[in-house]
Amino acid sequence: MWADIGMAKRVVDAAASGAADPHAHPLLGVRTDDEDGVIRFSATYAAERLWVLAEHRIDGFAVLPGTAYIEIANAAALRGGLGASVALRHLNFLSPLIVSEGRSRQARVTLSPLADDGYRIEVESRANAAEEWQLHFEAQIGAFTAAPAPIEPVQAEQTITAERLLIADRGVDFGPRWRNVRVAARGEGVVSAEFALSKEFADDVRTFRAHPALLDTAAATGLFLIDADGDGGVYAPVSMEAVRLFSALPAELYARARMVSAPDAVDAVFDVDISDASGAVIARNPRGGVSAYRV
Fold first, then answer.
1. What is the pTM of this model?
2. Taking the alpha carbons of 46, 50, 54, 56 in that order, is the dihedral positive or negative?
3. Domains (ranges, CATH) in the chain?
4. Phi-psi region of 248 (alpha: psi -120 to 50; beta: other; left: phi over 0)
5. What is the pLDDT of residues 36-82, one digit of tens each?
6. Could you tell me if 126 and 133 are in contact, meaning their C-beta atoms sit under 8 angstroms apart?
7. Cα separation of 282 and 273, whole Å?
8. Is 244 exposed, middle or buried (CB count within 10 Å of its CB: 0-12, 13-18, 19+)?
9. Distance of CA 19 to the CA centre of its chain
């Protein structure tokens, strides 16, 4: 028992300092492997050290964006041997991971083997060792070997204001990495948009294969189909039912969204395809994968 406590303390210390592995993913940290095949990662999250927190604030609090969990899952699965092409299913965003100014939280990512291959992933955090772990996200992730179907051409001729994706009424204070929308246009029930990180942040994609800021704005492309004036209200993307990642997101990408269910008093649902400059599909939210709720 005492040996386990000492080992746990060394893991926490290493996660806080990053000394155990200078090449560790910043959202994963230090890796430990159990005899039963469970893989755990331990890191310390602080807005001062993680742009993904510093640049995503709600009411002044640093809040881990939902797409950061996709990045965490993708990075963990890659280290768990699943390869670069994966599918996430049964995604549950259970509680926000909030970090107060000047504070930090211990984060733990757990991959538990599934009987039919792949892993169940859990993301938890706590303020200190005296607290219980709080579960923020869970999903199942596995290798995806099928080739992606090509993206259907979009007849989108009406140019629209790109700032709609970062509308202030969504209540989120976005940092510069989220200001990546170049142009967007819509047609009947479909919309296309182009995104790119500024040059100073382009190297992010070397570390973040599912770049949380790019994926966040690209996944929200469907919001361009919702009228935001008059009584239309303001909608914010809040959930994803399924995500397929075929390769790493480049610093410049394109998205196409198709409305699955028209917006009502509560929500709207979209399919989203993301491609690179050549048109190759690199990510997909299939079968009404993105839901936006009126806020």
1. 0.86
2. negative
3. 2-143 (3.10.129.10), 158-294 (3.10.129.120)
4. beta
5. 999 999 999 999 999 999 999 988 899 999 999 999 999 999 999 99
6. yes
7. 8
8. buried
9. 26
